[in-house]
Amino acid sequence: MERLARHDLRTLNAFLHQIYAHGDLKMFPMQTLAALSQIVPADICGYNEVNLRRKRLVALLDPADAHFPNNQQLWATHMHEHPVLAEYRRTYDGRAYKISDFLTRPQFHRLALYNEVYRHQRAEDQMSVTLPAPAPLVIALTFSRSRRTFSERDRLVLNVLRPHLIQAYHNAEALTQLRQEMEQLKQVLEECNRGIIILTSRGGVQLMTGNARQWLQDYYGQATHQRAGRLPEDMWLWICQQQSVLTPHDAVPPSRTPLVVEREGKRLVVRLLTNQAEGQMLLLLEEQCTTVSLTPLVPLGLTKRENEILYWVAQGKTNKEVALRLGLSPHTVRTRLENIYGKLGVETRTAAAARALDMLGLMRQ
């Protein structure tokens, strides 16, 4: 039984470090070919995605000039003649096979596939290993040579590497999907006027949405920006303080409070979430408008102060919260609300809020 030599094992281990460090599906094909070509030398290496139903081939070849006009279309037209593909469709055995395992040289030369495609590439033999993919897709890594010189060592190398190639492909697939979902999430967050910053346990920025980046610029300015990949110092100090709140004490600690940064007519509200298991921190950012136009409420016949109270009640604020915002006592807010009910001809807080939302054009559907 063929065994790998010690230098082969060292080469394979180096390859595995490379293959598992690959990025997404966009990077996977060429990086894989470049690495494999050092292990199984060939005149042409190829990464091929074959759609059996549509008879379509998408191929990346190394070297790139191995392509010639219409070769992918011609290959797809004659792909039913490829003996390794036929064997895979029959058995779903993705291990390494050579064309020469199935056809003699004269038999191969009689095929339209050879005369239309492989003859132009000066390919007299090809070894392929197939990766599992959802039907009708077939993914194959191919190695073509001008002579029939593939050895059992070459076959063994590819078969040993195949489980790792499969896993690396799944990793790239998962990373691609994650990046797509993150882009969708970032778009939704920005449309909802929200932002996200993901930090390491030491405060390094791992991810920052566009809204979050712009707000840090708007509220903290260029002069306060720290070195690349760090938050403004004031924000980091607030995070440290929030983290210390939940440090074990003899008494129940106070609740965490959001960071609020005010500017003319707006405020930035930052909330901290932590994931102890992952060693990460998540900042949720939201920009709020603090300048309120009460003009739409004027037709209700209320005073300016009553309009202010009704507005915040319609926003779901409690009497205590309204009092804090307007510098009043909760008792005064309660008294003013009773006057508002009488002027509007309603009896409940909900009915008064509904009238205000209607006037403001914010009536909830």
Could you characterize the architecture of this molecule?
The chain is an alpha+beta fold and 365 residues long. It folds into three domains: 6-178, Transcription factor LuxR-like, autoinducer-binding domain (Beta-Lactamase); 193-289, 2-Layer Sandwich (Beta-Lactamase), CATH 3.30.450; 295-360, Orthogonal Bundle (Arc Repressor Mutant, subunit A), CATH 1.10.10. It contains 13 helices and ten strands. It has helices spanning 6-19, 28-36, 71-78, 83-91, 105-109, 112-118, 152-191, 210-220, 233-245, 304-314, 319-326, 330-344, 349-360; strands spanning 44-51, 56-62, 97-98, 125-131, 137-145, 194-200, 205-208, 259-263, 266-275, 280-289. The protein has a five-stranded antiparallel sheet, with helices on both faces. Helix 3 packs antiparallel against helix 6 (112-118). It is elongated and about 100 Å long. The N and C termini lie far apart (74 Å). The relative contact order is 0.07. The mean pLDDT is 85.
